[in-house]
Request: fold
Amino acid sequence: MATLSVFGQPKVFNSSTVATFEAGNMIFNTVRGSIQGAQGRAIYEDGILTAISGSLDINTLKSGNRTRDGHLKKKEEFFNIEKTPRIYFLANDVLFVGKTNGTTTYKLSGSLTLRGVSNEMSLEIKETSKNHLVGTFTVNRDLWGLGEGWSKTIISQDIDVQVDIHLE
Reply:
């Protein structure tokens, strides 16, 4: 993962940082889960977010089913933690959108790396209170080869993700 500029005020992700996800399963079900083990930092200049990068530990993945968790963590077509134990995001561009009713909004453009495969993406992130950022985005499994060979009726193509970042 690339390093961030040390100009400005750095803040690190704390242990409360989590990504939650939802994926359709067998058409009628929704699997909900989480990934923790965050490492990362954000840089602020004059109170405005200017840079952010972070990673999550795939070994912390929990979906409510230990057998499924084992498959997601260890199978080659999923995360294969032996080879790629972390998910990475590096914002290449952080745009201050505005501040309304105490919530500051940013648009991030950057690179998300899953399974060792990097793709460019954009997401909106909101600073809902001091040291708390929340963002949502959708992962298209095909772009990262996630669950290759698994039918879209068994696992939905799109996985909805929410990141809940706590800084200190």
